Amino acid sequence: MQELITILESYFEETIIGSDVNIVKHLFYYLKADNREFEFIYEEEPLIAAVEDIQTSTVMLTIPDFVEKGSRRARVRFEVMNINYQFEVVINDIHHDRIIIRTPTELQSYQLRTNKRIPVDDLFMNFIILFRSLAGGSREVGKNLYAESRFPNLMKEIRRDRPDLKLLNLILTEAIQKVSKDYDIVFFKDADFQTDAEKFLENAIRETGKTFYVADCNSIDSYIKEYKSDVLFSFSWEYQSMCNEIGEELAFEFFETIRKNESRNFFVSYVIAPIRLYDDVVGYIKAYSTAMDRFTIAPTQAMYVHELSEIISYAFTKVAIQVGSFETMQSTTRVVDISLDGLLFEIHDRRLFQYLKRHNIIKMFIPLRRERMLILRGEIIRFLDRGDYFHLGVNYFSAAPDDLLYLEEFLFEKSMKILSE
Predict the structure, then answer these.
(1) pLDDT tens series, the chain, 421 aa
(2) Is residue 182 part of a domain?
(3) In 1, 317, 340, 382, which residue has its Cα 20 to 30 A from 229's Cα atom?
């Protein structure tokens, strides 16, 4: 701390008199002088902030894409000279993406990093995501156990380091057939010709990511009346939007045309659940019953298809990350710095960056030397948007036997080279 104070006093005229408030203020001066980005945790959502201006008792921060949610408290977390700091701050005012906070009056939480990270420019890694929960983020024990009890074979396969796509497809189709023998698995592509109904359906699924459920294709109310569910939806919102754009009469006629066409094709009921790659909708699962089947897809069966689509979306994304990381390793997963506690790595895919904010438990494969592959598991705790690329900070929580010893030897060699220059 004294070293930091000495450096900052050479930059700024303000004199430190020993109180915490001045030390804290100089920490913010350091962040501003170094143009550093740091974490601003608002309503448990980690955002990226930078210091814009520093006044007597307040600090102005710039936080892109900030959305006010009513709360006037947040947490600030950053690292300065190998020390991790965390403060709870009061928000005084909000001007779009400029936030004015009250300068903390005391050092609330700080921890000296026991192992300093060593910069590297010739180290790369592969990684895969590890299952924590389907939604990502905190563990959802109840939902996880429920999913594993309903889809044991599918859940077993997605927990593997390298899930088998062919096997996933077989398990998926077998599970859908438990609901109906009539089904479609569709992936979007540029079509030369689409009907108005097909265009509408594709746009609705792409834009909303909803699971649509029509319980009775003979009733227009099943299409345009709101369905009371947190997961299953009718086309009521789309109908209301169309009413506002072209009028109620034309909107009603459009959905009545869809209903009549589906009735002519003997549809009785159906459910359409989106398939996602990362967070982008790329296709859908459609299970339907017809007049020849003499049964109607029940809400519980529609829920089953929805849950199935969530699991298979996670599985497809895990495979995409694994394939993308392994095949384009040197251009996407460069290690920036590394220590015995964690590392910072670099990627260029924004979709992957956003996805890892929720699915942040990863397994890393680092070829330290030709004969030695480190296998480390860790949690991503820092997300830094650098514009054209992204930095992610990982803390390890487990390693293969003896791997940390090999890493320690590697870091010692690296640090000696740095010290000798």
Answers:
(1) 555 555 555 554 444 444 566 778 888 888 888 777 888 888 878 888 889 998 888 999 998 878 888 788 888 888 776 577 888 889 988 888 889 999 887 766 655 556 777 888 888 888 988 887 766 655 454 555 666 778 888 888 888 888 888 999 999 999 999 999 999 998 888 766 777 888 888 899 999 999 999 999 999 999 999 988 888 999 999 999 999 999 999 999 999 999 999 999 899 999 999 999 988 999 999 999 998 888 899 999 999 999 999 999 999 999 888 876 555 444 458 899 888 888 999 988 888 998 988 888 899 998 887 778 899 999 888 888 888 889 999 988 888 878 888 888 888 887 765 433 3
(2) yes
(3) 317
**Nearby residues of 184 by Cβ (< 8 Å), 6 or more positions away:** 285, 286
Q: Are residues 160 and 235 in the same domain?
A: yes
Same domain, 217 and 353: no
The burial of 314, by beta-carbon neighbours within 10 Å (0-12 exposed, 13-18 middle, 19 or more buried), is given as buried
* Other CB atoms within 10 Å distance of the CB of residue 409: 12
Residue 162 resides in a domain: yes
Alpha-carbon distance of 307 to 36, in angstroms, equals: 42
Is residue 310 within 8 A of residue 175, CB to CB? The reply is no
Residue 186 and residue 125 in one domain: no
Residue 117 contacts residue 129 (beta carbons within 8 Å): no
Which of 292, 324, 356 is the last residue before a domain boundary? 324
* Residue 305 and residue 258 share a domain: yes
Domain count, the chain: 3
* pTM exceeds 0.85: no
Between CA 42 and CA 58 the distance in angstroms is 18
| Residues 340 and 222 both lie in one domain | no
Asked if residue 270 and residue 151 are part of one domain, the reply reads yes
Q: In terms of residue numbers, what domain contains 25? A: 2-112
Is 327 in a helix, a strand, or coil?
A: helix
- Euclidean distance between CA atoms 75 and 374, whole angstroms: 34
Give helix 2-11 / helix 20-33 axis angle, nearest 10°.
60
- Give strand pairing partners of 50: 37, 62
Q: Is residue 7 part of a domain?
A: yes
Q: Is residue 194 part of a domain?
A: yes
Domain of 267: which CATH number?
Answer: 3.30.450.40
